[in-house]
Amino acid sequence: MATKKKTTAKKTTTRAPAARKKTVSGKTPAKKKAPAAKKSAGKVSAKAPAKAPAKKKKAKLPVAPTQKVGPAENPAAKALAHRIGKLLVDKKAQDVVILDVRGMTSYADYFVIASAETDRQVSAMAENVQVQLKTGDEPQRPIGTEGFETGQWVLLDYGEVVAHLFLTDLRAHYDLEGLWADASREKLA
Fold first, then answer.
1. Residue 146: CA atoms inside 13 Å, Cβ hemisphere, count?
2. Of 53, 61, 123, 173, which is most buried by a Cβ count within 10 Å?
């Protein structure tokens, strides 16, 4: 008769899953991935992804030559802005600046900003610009005007060019140059 070995049953206790060990820095290490199984040459694995259908090739367009990024130059508007600036300098305007706002605003290409010490001088500068632009080879009339009554801030809108004529204190208060800080500027006087 053969005797059977007695096996003792091992105690099995239910434990919570082991917590990950923390490193010195207090972070838990990332799990290591199991090495990828090598594919055998002749077999197709059920886990292998199917090939994507062949994509149609897009026709290549000819490459355009590199151009300066930004809106196109408007020589007529630039000439008008310079003419307005010159007329303002002739009437002793202070701090005459031309701002190039092409591409930054949809209603104008250039701003002409100038200031004077008195409201009478601001009105005289605005009136001189209007009178001088109405005469000449190509008469220009403003689309709109504002501020003639008070003479503190006169606005002359010539379409692509807008002239802002200020009292010195009001110009500092509204700070249009700061508002359009990204615009390139040209100082005339």
1. 7
2. 123
Q: Which amino acid is at 154?
A: V
Query: Across 12-171, where does the E strand assignment appear?
Result: 94-100, 110-116, 144-146, 153-157, 161-167
Residue 86 has phi, psi (to 5 degrees) of -65, -40
Residue 2, CA distances (Å) to 5, 6, 7, 24 in order: 10, 12, 15, 57
3-state secondary structure (DSSP) of residue 1: coil
**Length of the chain measured in residues:** 189
Domain boundaries, the chain: 93-187
For 163-189, write each residue's pLDDT tens digit: 999 999 999 999 888 899 888 989 987
Q: Is the pTM of this model over 0.70?
A: no
- Return d(Cα 153, Cα 165) in angstroms, integer: 6
Q: Residues 6, 8, 10, CA angle at the centre, nearest 5°?
A: 155
For 3-38, the pLDDT digits (tens) are 666 666 555 555 555 555 555 555 555 555 555 555
| 145 torsion bin: left (phi>0), alpha (psi -120 to 50), beta (else) | beta
What span, in angstroms and rounded, lies between the C-alpha atoms of 97 and 115?
10
- Whether 144 and 68 have beta carbons less than 8 Å apart is answered as no
User: Looking at this protein, which amino acid is placed at residue 155?
Assistant: L
Task: Specify the CATH number for 93-187; select among 3.20.20.140, 3.40.50.720, 3.30.460.10, 3.40.640.10.
Answer: 3.30.460.10
